[in-house]
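Sharing a chain and its predicted structure for anyone who wants a worked example. Both blocks are below, sequence first, tokens second.
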Amino acid sequence: MGLTERPRHSQAHTALAARIRQWRDERSWNQQELADRAGIARSTLSKIENGLMSPTFEVLLKLARGFETELSDLVRTESVPLSGRMVVERSAADRTVFPYPHNRLWPLAATLKGRAFQSAFVEFTQTDLTDFGPWNSHPTEDLLLVLSGLLEFHSEGYETAVLNPGDTVHFDGSVPHACLSAGTVTCRCLYVYAAKVSGI
């Protein structure tokens, strides 16, 4: 499923909806044009822009591709433009969180432009594969480094792997996969991902 079936009224989601509308208006696109470029239904885009539905990670990636921009630019918090190639974020920083059906995501260094990769903290909240629904799939090369808890990693064509803190998994994000929190402590990971290079 591409959407969380409940409205979002948080400041982050309100800002995201406003940014999508603004970027679309700046390009003189109607909703159908953006929906076609992103590969989503126009009705889905309309509900996102009006705060009636919240996009999942996969839908956000499609919208970023539709705008031909980086995901971090689409979900960024407004700040002074970065003039260099470095940004420091303290562990106590009040980071914006994006909740999804199976996880919560905190983008890292969203103001840093032009990166070949993106990064985030991700907390996996789903514990039962039977309740997961359709597995995830997105056109990225992915890395997960387990920080706490246990990660139960399911991927089409591979045996299930249970990863401990300090373990990593590198994988093709386009292959259907599902991540579960397997222990008594909620699984939290560092997530690093990059758009696939054409032809690879």
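Comments welcome. Helices lie at 11-26, 31-38, 42-49, 57-67, 71-74.
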